[in-house]
Design brief:
Layout: H1 16-28, E1 32-34, E2 38-40, H2 44-55, H3 62-76, H4 82-101, H5 106-132, H6 138-165
Helix pairs in contact: 1-2, 1-3, 2-4, 2-6, 3-4, 4-5, 5-6
Transmembrane segments: 12-30, 36-54, 107-133, 145-163
Membrane topology: Multi-pass membrane protein
Subcellular location: Cell membrane
């Protein structure tokens, strides 16, 4: 009998990126009160998808990014499919560019995330405008993007630790 078919408790660790990302989405759905601007919802799920798609793309496949985005849409009450689409695109871009990000200084990963998060926020705003058939205030979207990029080091550092503890990418 092949050893691949035997279930072992260590295989449960392979579900950790998805579970942690869903937990971050739940935490991120609680508004952070920002003085003078109102509630802000940082995109913690996008940070997790970015980190795991770069570090362990085998544990953050397209379908998982889609399901996580769908869960985020359901939790936040946003247009159904919006975050699912965005997180799939983020996953695809990160997995495709990982050779430029793996093993590089943390500041480069942070800059890489900003390069992905800001256009994703603009795409989110554009899709929301089309969905609601009106111009949605862009300030809220940019505040979300800015707070997400600013909080990246605090969220990504523990995620990077988890990704490194899970070991190297397993060949298909």
């Amino acid at each position: 009998m092949s050893d691949d078919r035997i279930w072992h408790p260590s295989r449960l660790l392979l579900a950790l990126p998805g579970l942690v990302t869903v937990l971050l989405i739940l935490v991120g759905s609680v508004p952070i009160g920002a003085p003078l601007v109102g509630p802000v919802l940082p995109a913690f799920g996008m940070i997790a998808v970015f980190v795991f798609a770069v570090q362990r793309p085998d544990l953050m496949p397209h379908w998982l990014a889609f399901l996580i985005g769908l869960a985020q849409d359901l939790v936040t009450g946003g247009p159904l499919g919006l975050n699912a689409l965005l997180l799939m695109v983020v996953q695809a871009v990160c997995a495709g560019q990982r050779r430029f990000l793996v093993g590089r200084p943390f500041a480069l990963a942070w800059a890489g995330f900003a390069v992905i998060a800001l256009p994703a926020a603009l795409a989110q705003w554009l899709i929301a405008c089309i969905y609601f058939a009106e111009i949605v205030p862009i300030g809220d979207v940019m505040l979300q993007a800015g707070s997400t990029v600013a909080l990246f080091p605090f969220v990504a550092a523990p995620l990077l630790y988890v990704a490194h503890r899970l070991g190297q990418e397993q060949p298909a």
